[in-house]
Amino acid sequence: MRSLKNDTNFSEWVEPRLYILLSLHQRGKEHLQRETNKERMTLRLELIIIFMLQSRGISGKDEHLYKRVGEDVLIDCGAGRSSDQCSDVQWLHDRPKNTETEILTIEINIQKSSVGASRLSVDSDCSLIIRNITYKDAGRYICRIGNWDNVVYLNILIITLSLSDVHGGVDLTCSLKSYYDGFCKQNRIIWMDETRTKLSGKNSEFEVKEQRNCDSVLTVKHQGGNNKRFTCKFLEDNKMKIDADYVLTGFSGKTEHLYHRVGEDVLLPCIDKSSSSSCSDINWLYQKDPSASAITEVKNGIVIQSSVRASRLNVSSNCSLLIRNITDEDAGRYDCQVKNKNDANLVLNTLSISTDPPEVHPRGNESVTLLCSLKRYDKTILCEQNSIIWMDERGSQLTGEGVEFEFRGQTNCVSVLTVKHQSRNNKKFTCKFLEDNEVKIDADYVDVLDLSDSTHSNSVISPDIIIGAVVGVVLVLLVIFAVLLFKTKRAKATNDHNGGKDFQMPTYQNSEPDSGPESELTYASVNHSRSKATSKITIKEEEGEVTYSTVKRN
C-alpha cells in the first residue's frame, strides 16, 4: 500500500503516471485506425491494466497494530523476503503531527542517529523490531522497496499518573497515541474496576471525566491500606482493541509488596505527612537487593540529579515517589524516611515477557520461546513451583504440549513457553504470577499480528482510503468507456457489411446435353426468376457481377 505524505507528494507521484497513460492512449488512437476489432479491444484492456498497476499503491486497507508501552513489537514488511534480500529495503517513520519523515534503516543497517536506535533491529524477513516501546514510537511505519511501499500504523496505549486537584487523590490518564493523534470518537476509551464494572460519573471514591480526543482521565481518591486495580480499554465498533491495567497501592504501616509490569508508572506512597509543604524533611532510598548498598534517590524532597533514573523520578506534593516507565532494573526495596526515620518500606516486583533469543520472532511455521520473568528484591526467596502459569485467550491453563504450544516448565522465577507459530492464526498468551492462589500480576503476549481483526481498523477515515476510492471510480469509468466503444465499433462494422441489396437464391436445373460434337460437355442453366424462395443471399450492389463457366466432363 502506498503512503502519500501530502498533496505535493501525491501530485509528484500521479503526474508522471497520467502522462504515461495519456501518451499510451494517444498511441492507441492511432493504432485503432489501422488494426482489427480484436486488436483494438486488446489495446484498450492493456491501457486499463497499466493504469491499475500504476494505481495499486494507493488502494487497499491500512494495517493498524495496537500495543502497550513497554512491550516489544514486530512490524511486518509484507515483502516475503529473506535476510539476504533486504539490501534494498528501507524503513521510515512518520510521527504524529510531524511533517518530517525519519529514516530508520538504510540497506538493512539501523541509522544510529534515529531516535531509539538501540531498541531497533531488522528481522530475518526484513521486518522491523522495536523493543520496550514508548509512546513516542507511535505513528506510521513505511517499509519501502524501490517504488513499492507497505504501511503499518502503530497505536500505543499508555496509563500515566499525576497528582489530582482533589486532596489525597491521583489522576490516571489513559491515552491512545497514534498517527492521527487527537482524533478518537467519544466513549472509545472506558474505565473499569476490578469487578469489571464500567466506571462513569462521580462518587465518593472516583470521578470519570469527559473524554477529550484520545485521553480519558480517572480521578481516584487514594486511601491508605487499599490496593485497587483499574483497567482502561480502547474500543472500536464496540470491540476491545487494547487494554491496560493500573494497580493503585495503599499503605498499611508494614512492608508492602507491589507488583507492576515493565513499562508502567508506579506511585510509591509515603504515609506520614511531612511537616514541610515542600517535603524538605523527606528522603527516598533505593536498595536493589539485600546485599547491595542503599542509594539515596531523593534528598530533602529533591531528586538527586546524578541518579541514572533522575529523568523518570518525581516527588508529589504528598511526598510520594513517582517512577515512570519502569524497567526490570527498578525492582527492589524503597524506603521513605521522614526526619531520617523509616516510614514506608515498599518492595517493588516487576513482571515481563521476553523472547529467547531476543532477535527471534516467529515467521511461517517457525516457533518462538517466551520467557515470563518475575524480578524481586530478595532473590534468595525462590518462587514456588507452578506459581507462574501460562493461559491461552480462552482462559485455559497451558500445560504439557499442544498443537500450538509447548510448556517447558518453571525454573525459580522464570517460566518458559514455546509458541508454535502458524500463519494467519495469531494468538494471545497470558503469563500470571500467583501467591496463595491469588493473581498478583499478569502480562500478555500477542503472537505477531492479528490481521483479521485488530490490525485492520481505524477510528478515522484515512486520506489514503479516500484517494483509493477516487481512483476506483476512475477505473470503473474507464472500463465502461472501453466496453461502449467496443460495442459502437462492432455495430458500425455490421452496418457496413449489410449495406447491399437482397437477392433470391438462384435455382439450378440440369438439362440433357445435345448430340453433336460438343456432346462431351455438360451444361447448366441458371434460372434467376423472382419467384418466392426460402433461401436468400446478400451481396453489395457494386459486386453484383455474373460469371459463366463451362465444366468439361471426362
From TrEMBL:
Q: Which residues cross the membrane?
A: 465-486
Q: Which InterPro entries match?
A: Ig-like_dom, Ig-like_dom_sf, Ig-like_fold, Ig_sub, Ig_sub2, Ig_V-set
Q: Tell me a Gene Ontology molecular-function term this record carries.
A: MHC class II protein binding
Q: Which residues form the Ig-like domain?
A: 70-160, 263-354
Which stretches does the entry tag as region Disordered? 493-538
The source's domain of life comes to Eukaryota
Q: Which UniProt keywords apply?
A: Membrane, Transmembrane, Transmembrane helix
Record's GO cellular component terms: external side of plasma membrane; membrane raft
Q: Where is the composition biased (Polar residues)?
A: 522-537
Set out the biological process GO terms recorded for this chain's protein.
Answer: interleukin-15-mediated signaling pathway; positive regulation of ERK1 and ERK2 cascade; T cell activation
* Descriptive protein name: Ig-like domain-containing protein
